[in-house]
Amino acid sequence: MRVVSLLPSATEILFAIGAGDAVVGVTHECDFPAEARTRPHLTSSLLPAELNAAGIDRHVRASVHAGSSLYGLDDAALAALEPDLIVTQELCAVCAVSYEIVDRAAKRLRGDPRVVSLEPSSLDDVFATIAFVGDLVARRAEADAFVAGLRARVAALRERVSRRDRPRTLVLEWTDSPMSAGHWTPGLVELAGGIPVLGNPGANSRVLDWGAIAAADPDVVLIAPCGYDLAKARDAVAALPEPGAHALRGLRATQEGRVFAVDGNAFVNRPGPRLVETAELFAAAMHGFAPPVTGVMERITGE
């Protein structure tokens, strides 16, 4: 089987269950594991590189309103790979190349490849998706064993936080304008031993008001802008204009040193196997545990 993965989380799943050798093409954002970077890239971003958080927000809203894609797909390169299976998504027009573009391109290919859309909205959905992908590529036993290991980590985390206080925790998936965490993220906050604040479980992120954030006054704030690594997340916080900067400085979480920038691109925003690690990172921020991986989360001071 020849598989094209147009979704970074699907690429992670395929490699994790031992189907990496079947992957013949990926997106420009498929960066984990390292071997995935060696596959041909079939997509590109159409966002102007120089935009800041506010500029990206305006550009995305205008593009979505106009029905334009934020990603380009190399149809010729896709055709040359002659895939049997193309894995994509319909969950978010902002996060990956749209299903409509992929479907149109697939219909022009020889061999009538199967196009499969993955739509997880919770951690349990991700586990089911791993099993489904395992069926698609004849790796169901490997997928089940992998999920069993992830579930064991989930159980261990639940036990570890079960007797701790549950801090009220806000996760921001964008800074300017501020946006709440949706889909699987509020569930990860609960798994990590917190109470999600202003979240939108099982649904898209929504725009928040800085006044509402100030009124909620969460115990912990995790800032994980979609598509941003730790350095960009840190820069987005530093560049936050008023009234957002003032509101963030005034939060009790900031004054108590409980605001963190997080690599949202690799962890929070990507519905793949590393969501379990994301919950472990959240728990580290909330409860002072040692983080499961370093260099992906940083405390933000109020200075």
TrEMBL record:
Gene3D superfamilies attached to this UniProt entry: Nitrogenase molybdenum iron protein domain
InterPro entries in the cross-refs: ABC_transptr_periplasmic_BD (IPR002491), Vitamin_B12-ABC_binding (IPR051030)
Annotated Pfam families: Peripla_BP_2
Domain Fe/B12 periplasmic-binding span(s) in chain numbering: 2-290
Top-level division of the source organism's lineage: Bacteria
Protein name: Cobalamin-binding protein
